[in-house]
């Protein structure tokens, strides 16, 4: 599923393009800005929470680059050890690490700030979504 938008090509003709909703859900720039804002503001009161917010921010930046690369490498041959398979495994690992940090540290420590709590739950859903997209193998 994708969002269709109109783009003008180099010949001046307008053509529809499809934006992948899955990639947009991973971590938006707004989420990254809020993560940086909360990490900076809670640094004095709770440096432990701040350090985990910075770690999740770094993970989301890395994941956004990896997800864009994975979209370009659409073909995946699971019978061979290809670069795309290694990329998928790295995306799964990064999403798992982010999920652990969100669930074990950030959500329990974000009870005082409701906006941070909502952002943490949104990020948890995004990490679950990435994990399901790249690791789900129904039989």
Question: Could you characterize what this model shows?
Answer:
This protein has about 140 residues and is mainly alpha-helical. The protein has helices spanning about 20-25, 30-40, 45-70, 85-110, 115-135, and strands spanning about 1-10, 15-20. It has a two-stranded antiparallel sheet with strand order 1-2. A hairpin with a 5-residue loop joins strand 1 and strand 2 (about 15-20). The two termini are about 20 Å apart. Mean pLDDT is about 80; it is low at about 1-5 and about 15-25.
Structural class: mainly alpha
Would you report the number of β strands?
2
> What is the H/E order?
EEHHHHH
* Sheet with the most strands, sense and barrel status: 2 strands, antiparallel
Low-pLDDT segments, ≥5 res? 1-7, 16-26
Global Rg: 17 Å
**Mean of pLDDT:** 78
Strand order of the largest sheet: 1-2
The N- to C-terminal Cα distance equals: 22 Å
What's the number of helices? 5
Query: Which percent band covers the strand fraction?
Result: 5-15%
Percent helix, as a range, is: 55-70%
Concise overview:
By secondary structure, this protein is mostly helical. It is 68% helix and 10% strand.
Tags for this model:
68% helix; disordered N terminus; two-stranded antiparallel sheet; 10% strand; mainly alpha
Please specify the SSE layout and strand pairing.
Blueprint: E1 2-8, E2 14-20, H1 21-26, H2 29-41, H3 47-72, H4 83-109, H5 114-135
Antiparallel strand pairs: 1-2
Helix pairs in contact: 2-3, 3-4, 4-5
């Amino acid at each position: 599923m994708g969002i269709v938008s109109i783009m003008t090509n180099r010949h001046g003709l307008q053509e529809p393009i499809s934006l992948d909703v899955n990639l947009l859900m991973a971590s938006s720039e707004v989420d990254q800005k809020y993560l940086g804002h909360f990490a900076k503001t809670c640094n004095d009161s709770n440096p432990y929470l701040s350090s985990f917010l910075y770690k999740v921010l770094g993970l989301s930046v890395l994941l956004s680059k990896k997800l864009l690369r994975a979209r370009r490498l659409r073909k995946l041959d699971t019978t061979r050890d290809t670069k795309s398979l290694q990329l998928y495994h790295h995306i799964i690992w990064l999403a798992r690490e982010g999920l652990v940090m969100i669930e074990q540290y950030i959500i329990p420590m974000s009870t005082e700030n409701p906006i941070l709590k909502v952002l943490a739950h949104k990020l948890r859903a995004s990490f679950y979504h990435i994990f399901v997209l790249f690791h789900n193998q129904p039989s």
